[in-house]
Amino acid sequence: MKNLSLYRRRLIPDECILLKDDILLEANDDHILTKWNTLKPKEFLHHGDSCYYLNKGVKVSRFYTEDNFLICWYCDIVSYEWKEEKTALLTTDLLLDVLVYPDGSIKLLDMDELAQAHAQKLISDELLQTSLMTANRLLNEIYEGKFHDLYTPVFHKY
Known about the structure:
- The protein has helices spanning 111-119, 125-143, 147-151, and strands spanning 5-10, 15-18, 23-27, 31-37, 47-53, 58-64, 70-83, 88-100, 106-109.
- It is an alpha+beta fold.
- Strands 1, 2, 3, 4, 5, 6, 7, 8 and 9 form a nine-stranded mixed β-sheet that branches.
- Strand 1 (5-10) and strand 2 (15-18) form a beta hairpin.
- It is globular, with a radius of gyration of 15 Å.
């Protein structure tokens, strides 16, 4: 997986981009770990790293300020699709996001976008159900105090 190309597909707005500047740190059949600088600079968000959990339908990113202050863990609910004999991975954002803050608080985002995408037939019934079930599983793991045990050990290698 050394020459792996990563693509991010969004439904709203409709776009698919090659994450050409992401740096691949680790890749195996379970996860892919990258580090990156923001594509579109924001007031606080400067850089981060992401772990694509290939068997969980979740991409967990750590968002940092320019001076390396951890803003939050940003969990995208996604689907993965391998292309070109596993040399390219297409990650489709299934719209729901779960933010986990350093103080332990959490926030679920974009339920309205998920409903809008379904109403406009941008997302299938199957992917809608996948998004909801994956977000529910992730939230339950967070509520049960398992988030850091399940989703952050990979990051500690780097």
